Amino acid sequence: MKTAIVTDSTSYIPEELRKQLDIYMIPLSVVMGGKSYREEIDLSTAAFYEAIKHEDQLPTTTQPPIGEFVKLFETLGKKYDAIISFHLSSGISGTYQGAVSAAAMVEGVEIYPYDSETSCMAQGFFTLEAAKMAQEGKDVKEILARVRELHKHLRAYFMVDDLAHLQRGGRLTNAQAFIGSLLKVKPLLHFVDKKIVPFEKIRTNKKALKRIEDLLGEDVQKALPLQASIIHANREQEALEWKQELESKFPQVAFSISYFGPVIGTHLGEGAMGLAWTLK
Question: What separation in angstroms does the CA of 217 have from each of 144, 156, 240?
Fold first, then answer.
């Protein structure tokens, strides 16, 4: 069985790697200055963070039209027997539901939309593993079983400099944002039941990063073979420095660096930093 692997742009897998692993990407969009830009296609992450410095209003984001899903699925159906499509959490976007609706409209190919219940490289872990297995000729059942195993061990925590972005975007309640602003805290956030919620309230960036390190350390002590990704919103130098620190503390973990691109960056704001890990 020949299986196609699809993901949306919020997994932020570099184009070279997508090509190497035959991963097909469908983009979400950012609307700025009255214009819509498909992230990773019309708008790079660097250009986005530069542009928002000059915008009076926060950008908005939109999910892919169902018609784009249908077009992609029909095209892939001509040369693949099955499609697995990985998407950001259905609790913060309608993208996954769009894939489900489109799958019901396409005949001649088995389509398996997958709700990652998270986003960014946490979602990317699933996509990359599935793509490697698809290239090895594994069938859908084997691929999804492996992804569910990774999902079971997935952890992802992130902090933001300003909760207002999440509040205005409707991804965090007003009360939660108000409490964070009032106390000047740097809350650690994570996904629970597909939604972004506070994990702990911490006073400084340094303490927040240390807490994330401690959480990773708890899993390292279980002797699990782990891979981890540092995810940043236009904080590349800080991400590189943190990676060096983590590698010295946890040499048994395979670390990489990823980023919060335009769509997720719209909701988190510049300066956000996170760490996601799962089985290697």
Answer: 28, 13, 19
